[in-house]
Q: What sequence folds into this?
């Protein structure tokens, strides 16, 4: 048993193998059940954590191989420019709606976080920690740090937000009768960053393109707005 | 060969994005600089769509799996999260749903009004 653990810990391909297999199982369950909650990322995440805990494999050993998957995230995000370019005319035609949608998302986020902080009497450290939860990790962790938040918690929250966005998107759109592809993309990108965008890409080219755009714009706007809000409200 | 060239372009742009992040004073990550650079290159015709199309379709298709390692990292940060568990859970679940719904409704409302 101990031998197996050592072999797995030293392996270069173990992390990537279980990531792909567990995601595959997630896809299979999603295909079979057709339920939004049967989300491949969520299922993959739960399965991997169970396997690691069961065999007492550390996160570091898992990351030994799995880090190469994360490493591809930057080039993949760069590629979001491709569907965006293909939908450039659509972007120009709907520019007012798109800007308003992203602004509405940022305002709603600030209000929700502020209300929570007032309700639970949380100080400005927590406010600063919660504010960047809807934007992409690379920007979010810096915003948290610069405004006096707790960086590690922000990163965890960003991750959870992304999974939640990925899981609930279909349900939210159905309940709120949002069926315009541009609106879907903007909503996902500005609420659940790149992780949500993965879902938008599955929904369609327009959704994916708009979601990628919203991630970039919402991220950059939050950099400017977060410190201002902190000054204004505290 | 086709894929080699396409990946070479995409990875080079990611690299330039990384350089910009190092040398410019803004809080913008390499991936967002890269996204903007790629868009500008496509719009100006510096890069033709078919020079990156196949590789980018592949990477975008693969994208969800790329998030798994980072999400598994939650296993590690669980300890620090416990202190603000309730507000954090509300922010992440209710907050995300609200932000998504409001943003989608506003965008759709303005699009529909124009038509």
A:
């Amino acid at each position: 048993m101990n031998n197996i653990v050592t072999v797995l810990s030293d392996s270069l391909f173990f992390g990537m193998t279980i990531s792909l297999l567990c995601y595959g199982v997630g896809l299979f369950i999603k295909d079979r059940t057709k339920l939004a909650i049967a989300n491949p990322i969520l299922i993959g995440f739960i399965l991997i954590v169970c396997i690691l805990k069961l065999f007492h494999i550390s996160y570091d050993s898992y990351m030994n191989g799995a880090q190469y998957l994360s490493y591809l995230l930057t080039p993949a995000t760069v590629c979001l420019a491709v569907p965006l370019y293909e939908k450039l005319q659509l972007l120009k035609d709907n520019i007012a709606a798109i800007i308003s949608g992203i602004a509405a998302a940022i305002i709603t986020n600030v209000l929700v976080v502020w209300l929570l902080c007032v309700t639970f009497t949380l100080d400005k450290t927590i406010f600063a920690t919660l504010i960047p939860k809807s934007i992409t990790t690379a920007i979010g962790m810096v915003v948290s740090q610069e405004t006096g938040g707790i960086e590690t918690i922000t990163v965890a929250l960003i991750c959870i937000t992304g999974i939640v966005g990925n899981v609930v998107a279909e349900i939210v759109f159905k309940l709120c009768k949002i069926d315009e592809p541009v609106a879907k993309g903007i909503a996902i990108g500005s609420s659940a960053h790149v992780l949500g965008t993965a879902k938008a890409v599955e929904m369609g080219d327009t959704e994916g393109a708009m979601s990628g755009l919203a991630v970039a714009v919402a991220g950059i706007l939050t950099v400017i707005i977060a410190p201002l809000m902190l000054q204004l409200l505290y | 060969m086709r894929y080699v060239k396409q990946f070479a372009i995409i990875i080079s742009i990611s690299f330039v994005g990384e350089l910009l992040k190092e040398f410019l004073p803004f809080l913008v990550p390499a991936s967002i600089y890269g996204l903007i650079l790629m868009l500008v290159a496509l719009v100006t015709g510096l890069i033709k769509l078919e020079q990156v199309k196949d590789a980018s379709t592949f990477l975008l298709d693969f994208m969800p799996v790329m998030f798994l390692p980072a999400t598994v990292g939650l296993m590690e940060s669980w300890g620090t999260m416990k202190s603000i568990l309730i507000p954090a859970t509300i922010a992440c679940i209710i907050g995300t749903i609200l932000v998504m719904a409001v943003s989608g409704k506003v965008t759709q409302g303005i699009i529909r009004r124009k038509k």
